[in-house]
Automatic annotation (TrEMBL):
Organism: Seminavis robusta
Pfam families documented for this protein: ADH_N, ADH_zinc_N_2
Listed name of the protein: Alkenal/one oxidoreductase, chloroplastic
Every Enoyl reductase (ER) domain range: 20-352
PANTHER family tied to this protein: ALCOHOL DEHYDROGENASE RELATED, RETICULON-4-INTERACTING PROTEIN 1, MITOCHONDRIAL
GO cellular component, one term: mitochondrion
GO molecular-function terms, A-Z: oxidoreductase activity
């Protein structure tokens, strides 16, 4: 086993050399420097697996360069969420040999698709051995966010619509909504069997039908819509108030009205913040439109990750991985994983295996 005394100076890592084109800009190299502990809550982890998320593709695209490009600019190691084994630690909570999971650091993911990563104590938790590293690496961001969204927005007896039910967050939202005691759960997705196996009572295939135009939901509208896709779902559906109760809520991730955030400078941030505030104000005051809500899925408190991992260990929550993974740690496979994540049609987490645990 590697320990701090036998640690190499260089490691294998997937780096981004510029914005945009995945095939041109992502490269797996063999000579990236192994990171070292600096701050008092730093932990050095030997990575077992890395899970991608929409944020990884967003950072690579350059659309949010002003806020999310990693500090040193290009090149940087891609990937945000991981599972692995502690090598050395400045934190008293973690010791060499501990099996852990860790989430990306705000404002944007980087550093996890390499053999080693320094992670923060506040974003890391001990992982029970019964969850294997391929399954556990994606739980800290998407399943945790799903738990928080449902805790904040769904009440017992609610009729719940989940738009994007087969995605990484949606597949956990369906399960948590069931646990929360939702009376009826409808998923919008092309994956009927998967969504039903996760707790959806019925599934609307968005390729054939628009949920906001279906008579049964206009007669018996939803209390809560959780939109993990954006775009016309709000513009045509949420905004019309046709299938959501007058006093219902529309939970939007991505927030606001766009399906893609673009942020290139301070003026962009000001303008986006005003758009969001205006949307919240307008929908709060409007008598016929559900209130547009932006949940906080990323604020981690002590114990949150432990509680979510317990849900998995005790069988209440099943991790969902896209069936084309886990991807191998080489140029072609890592690029393929990024293409799948960027397609917006992954069914569960997109995982790259880095090493045997
Ligand atoms: N992943 C995370 O860790 C995380 C954490 C916090 C917040 N978020 C945010 O949450 C949002 C969702 O993230 P995610 O990771 O769940 O995304 P994702 O896994 O990339 O979502 C892909 C899913 O979206 C579905 N989809 C695509 N177009 C659709 C449409 N028009 N109607 C219904 N479903 C559609 C696809 O199903 P089909 O194949 O059926 O089209 C696919 O299953 C993003 O804004 C993300 O930034 C993500």
């Amino acid at each position: 086993m590697t320990d701090s005394t036998t640690l190499p100076k260089k490691m294998k890592a997937a780096i981004a050399t510029g914005f945009g084109d995945i095939d041109k800009n992502i490269q797996v190299v063999e000579d990236w420097p192994v990171p070292t502990l600096k701050a008092k809550d730093d932990i050095l982890v030997k990575v077992s697996a890395c899970a991608l998320a929409p944020g990884d593709v967003r950072v690579l695209s350059g659309k949010t360069d002003w806020i999310q490009l990693p500090k040193g600019g290009h090149p940087y190691v891609v990937g945000g969420d991981l599972s692995g084994v502690v090598i050395s630690s400045n934190s008293k909570k973690f010791n060499p040999g501990d099996y852990v999971v860790s989430r990306f650091e705000l404002p944007g993911p980087s550093g996890a698709l390499g053999e080693y990563k320094v992670v923060k104590e506040s974003l890391t938790e001990h992982c029970p051995e019964s969850i294997d590293p391929i399954q556990s690496c994606g739980l800290t961001a998407s399943t945790m966010a799903a738990k928080k969204i449902v805790d904040q927005c769904v009440n017992k007896g609610d009729r719940v619509l989940v738009i994007g039910g087969s995605g990484a967050v949606g597949s956990s939202v369906l399960q948590y909504a069931k646990i929360a005691g939702a009376a009826h759960i409808v998923a919008v997705s092309s994956q009927e069997d998967l969504c039903k196996s996760l707790g959806a009572d019925s599934v609307i295939d968005y390729r054939n039908q628009n949920w906001w135009q279906m008579p049964e939901y206009q007669t018996d509208p939803f209390d809560v819509a959780i939109d993990l896709v954006g775009g016309e779902n709000w513009e045509q559906g949420g905004c019309s108030g046709a299938a959501i109760k007058r006093k219902g809520i529309y939970v939007a991730l991505p927030p606001g009205v766009q399906s893609e955030i673009e942020l290139h400078g301070c003026w962009g941030l000001v303008s986006l913040s005003f758009q969001w505030l205006w949307l919240v104000l307008w929908t709060t005051l409007h008598p016929k439109v559900p209130r547009n809500v932006m949940p906080d899925g990323l604020d981690l408190r002590d114990g949150d990750l432990r509680e979510m991992l317990n849900d998995v260990v005790e069988g209440r929550i099943k991790p969902v991985l896209d069936p084309s993974g886990p991807f191998e740690f080489n140029n072609d496979s890592v690029r393929e994983a990024f293409h799948l994540q960027g397609s917006k049609h992954a069914h569960g987490k997109v995982v790259v295996k880095i090493a045997d645990a």
